Amino acid sequence: MHNCAPIRVGLFFGGSSREREISFAAGRTIYDQLDRKFFEPLPIFVDSIGNFILLHWKYLYQSSIREIYPPAASTTRFLGIPLYIESLTTPNSDDNANFIAPIGKKIEPADFTKHFDIAFLCLHGPYGEDGTIQGLLEWYQIPYSGSAILPAALGLNKVFQRKILQNAGFLLPRSLILSQKKWLDTTHKSELFHEIITTLGLPFVVKSSTQGSSIGVSIVKDHGLSSFITAMHRAFFIEEVSYAIWKEYTLEEQKNWFNRLIDVREGIGFPLLVEGQILYTPDALLAYIELHFQKKQDAILLISAQAEEEIIIESFIQGREFSCVVLEAEKGKTITLPPTEILKGNMHFDYKAKYLPGMVRKQTPMVLPSLLLDAIRKEAAALFQLLGFQVYARIDGFLTNDNQIYLNDPNTTAGMHPSSFLFHQAAEIGLNPTQLITFIIKRSLEVRKEKGSLFAYALLQRLITMLVNT
Question: Any residues with CB less than 8 A from the CB of 193 and at least 6 apart, and which?
Fold first, then answer.
């Protein structure tokens, strides 16, 4: 047995992105699976306005963020619907302390090292998977898991990423990039729709450029203009409210509409922009809608404050969908795990299909001749190295009927819920979740040490001592 004190691991989860609920679930998984012989977990809940909260562990076991934060009270609900914190307060408000105190303790970045030795990042999307939190931790010289600032940023920005992949010779579907400004300025949407069909054909895929978990993704299958506009609005996080529909809503239907709007996984969320105004709360929006329709019947266009500046429209790839995890071993060598096939039938592999149990089946490893399996793994490893990823990543793609491999949507922070691709594939090489997490922490310390972190060097030596003497 070793006599070293466990390494304190700050588990960062939550965040402000549309994937915050997935991140919350991942934090719970890592907390449960972390090897207590070597590590002491400290749950750090990052709220959607930038507070870092040392969370009491019991709150990890709620099904969603809104069940615990803000604390349940009449002031945190609208028509009985729980709200996210950004609808109730601002980052510097004095009210924040009252919201935080019931669930934990706010900590400042300058004090991180008083609480933990290394940060394990379970954050997804903007501000968590784009180099932002990595930069903050670099500033305070705190080791962290996964890729560094630049590869994290490259992994999230799909537009810039495409340029790199294209220059490197990777296969990519035909595509167009459209800015929000051009979309809003386009008066004749039908003409734009016709241009896209002429260029890409049908069906085609519309997707946001900085989102993961299939949020903001739609497949346009026919010539229906309304379904095209709906897909574009979904990718840009725009909601149109028409007078004809709104006036027919019952109170219950209004409640259902607001419930969907507030949910950042399906709706555009708050705050939002409307005709130059910023609205932070559903109450303010309801008042605006009622007043607007008293005066005129023009449709209202609501735009998320976290809207996409540009989106990607690409031709649909007909083929078998897969996901492949790549691990980085010593000296930058890669270990590509057996890819998983997503067996979804005719279903679009959207957010619900990814995360609700029983929606799709996963086959690990993918049933293919060994030559094709090796080709997929080789291609995934090449992309991992091209983008400079570190420690681990999940890379998705398609295998067409003529055995062409198209890679897309690399993730530097792979999902870590219990049935995730990461754990599925690690099991195929004999690693259980606890062993895999230990590997990720150890390799992350090695990477940070190689970049000159003396603190990472000391922690790594401590961890090696514990591993050897256990």
Answer: 225, 228
The β-bridge partners of 363 are 341
CATH code, 231: 3.30.1490
Domain shared by 181 and 140, yes or no = no
8 A C-beta contact, residue 469 and residue 7: no
Q: 203 preceded by cis ω (within 30°)?
A: yes
pLDDT tens column, 65-98: 999 998 876 455 667 788 899 888 777 777 788 8
Alpha-carbon distances of 159 from 116, 382, 469, rounded to whole Å: 36, 19, 48
pLDDT tens readout for residues 366-389 = 999 999 999 999 999 999 999 999
Termini Cα distance of the chain: 5
Q: Which residue has the tokens 């105004």?
A: 277
Among 456, 390, 423, smallest CA distance to 119 is for: 456
Domain boundary, last residue among 183, 202, 235: 235
55 and 125 co-located in one domain = yes
Range of the domain at 339: 156-169+318-445
Any bridge partners for residue 53, and if so which?
45, 106
Residue 100 lies inside a defined structural domain of this protein: yes
Return the SS3 of 321: strand
Q: Are 386 and 311 in contact (CB under 8 A)?
A: no
User: Which structure tokens are listed for 440?
Assistant: 């990720």
Which of 235, 250, 269 is where one domain is finished?
235
Residue type, 92: N
What DSSP letter does each residue of 197-238 carry, written as one string? HHHH-SSEEEEESS--TTTT-EEE-SS-HHHHHHHHHHHHTE
Place of tokens 């091209």: 386
Q: What is the CATH number of the domain that holds 379?
A: 3.30.470.20
In a domain, 138, yes or no: yes
pLDDT value of residue 115:
97
Q: Are strands 52-55 and 340-343 parallel, antiparallel or unpaired?
A: unpaired
Structure token digits, residue 44: 């750090």
Residue 48: which CATH number? 3.40.50.20
- In whole angstroms, what is the distance from residue 426 CA to residue 422 CA? 6
Counted domains in the chain: 3
CA distances 163 to 255, 328, 398, Å, are 43, 24, 19
Q: Evaluate whether 336 touches 323 at the Cβ level (below 8 Å).
A: no
Q: Which whole number is the average pLDDT over 268-290?
A: 93
Cβ 398 vs Cβ 319: under 8 Å: yes
Cβ proximity of 257 and 208 under 8 Å: no
Give domain status of residue 303, yes or no.
no
Joined tokens for residue 327: 């691990």
